[in-house]
Amino acid sequence: MNTVSFSMSAVKAVLTLALLTCAVLGGSPAIATAATANWVTTWQASPQPTWGPDFLLPTNVPPVLHHQTVRQIARVSLGGARLRIVLSNAFGRQPLVVGGATVAMPGAGSTVIPGSVRRVTFGGQEAATILPGASLLSDPVELPIAALEQVAVSLYLPEATPVATFHWDGRQSAWIVPGNQTLARELRAGHESVLNTTARLLLTGIQVETAQTPRAFVVLGDSISDGATATLDKNSRWPDFLATRLAPHGVAVVNAGISGARLLSDGMGVNALARFDRDVLAQPGVQSVIVMLGINDIAWPGTAFAPTSLRPTLETLQAGYRQLVAQAHSHGVRVIGATLTPFEGALPGTPLDNYYHADKDALRRQLNDWIRDSGVFDAVIDFDAVLRDPANPARLGARFDSGDRLHPGDEGNRAMADSVDLETLLKGIGTPNGSMPTTKQER
């Protein structure tokens, strides 16, 4: 026992001496660097389970990947000297093998800029296995990237890999090619064809190292936040435009929207309460969350998406929101509620042309009144007031409408982001541990 005590004391003495020596000589030992590094999530694509061929919408991804490379482009909100990527096997039922990965600065199309390609490692190894239900965080990669720049991520899958986890509506071109082409400047298909998709595969997050206090807003939403009708490859979702406004303030905007998402029930992704820990609270640097959810809870019942489901009551929707707020506040995260936008006549000429009903709209308006006036939220963004047609408040204004009477187009997305009062949004963030204001007046 005395020998062990002496050895532990000796170890402590050596570590103390090493730290003091580094401080005197101006060095920074690895143990200190790891403890003081600040990481913030700068981009996200929330994982969803893939669905079967009987679902109303196609997955737009192959059922299995084998000996193939996937290259994807993502625009970050904040930049940094080093980055890390996050991969997910959240809904997989078997281990998933990653045979290699790289990050690079993208060129035109699927090309990358020569000299910018960096190998990605996981625990010092180029290959890694992601267990079922798990995620995988890479080692830091030395690739300086500026705010609002894009990065290309290439992943090689050497073994037969069932596609069980994806993000369906990435609004960004991605490429799938044969073999290990993670280091290739330009992807080549050889005798096979290049497969194109706008879904996200495996890649669910990008983090950057920052010298400042890490600060991020997460947008928890559905297809309106996911950017269902935003122009492809143009980063014109409303959270993208908000990211442009907040980047000069050193604040990241992380899009946790899922098309078809619901607050209380699983849809084209698990319900908001089930994914709140993963998509919001677990994100490094999160200090505030903007919640814009509920329209699919209200409108899906009775449609081809949920023909036998019952519409939720106002009280159950309120209870769901209150639970999100309670969980966020327990982690020192502020919650900004956003009103639901008009949808009269939504999705005409589609199998979902009964998405709208006057009774559903009445429930939306009741919920919006509660979001505005309940005092449950730390702040409120009134997107309903921004996008509605003054002559018919049940409809989107014509210049904001993408054409489907449900989703705003690029101009509507920009109007949403421009309407956000940054002073209100930034109030209270950057405090130690993202602590909440202590009084209602301070909120």
Automatic annotation (TrEMBL):
- Recorded superkingdom: Bacteria
**Listed InterPro entries:** GDSL, GDSL_Rv0518-like, SGNH_hydro_sf
Q: Which residues form the signal peptide?
A: 1-34
Q: Where are the transmembrane segments?
A: none
User: Sorted alphabetically, which keywords does the UniProt record give?
Assistant: Signal
Which residue ranges are recorded for the region named Disordered?
397-416
Compositional bias per record (Basic and acidic residues), positions renumbered to this chain: 401-413
Keyword Cell inner membrane set for record: no
The cross-references to PANTHER family, in alphabetical order and at most eight, read: GDSL-LIKE LIPASE/ACYLHYDROLASE, PUTATIVE (AFU_ORTHOLOGUE AFUA_2G00820)-RELATED (PTHR43784), GDSL-LIKE LIPASE_ACYLHYDROLASE, PUTATIVE (AFU_ORTHOLOGUE AFUA_2G00820)-RELATED (PTHR43784:SF2)
Under what name is this protein listed?
Lysophospholipase L1-like esterase
Q: What organism is recorded for this protein?
A: Hydrogenophaga palleronii
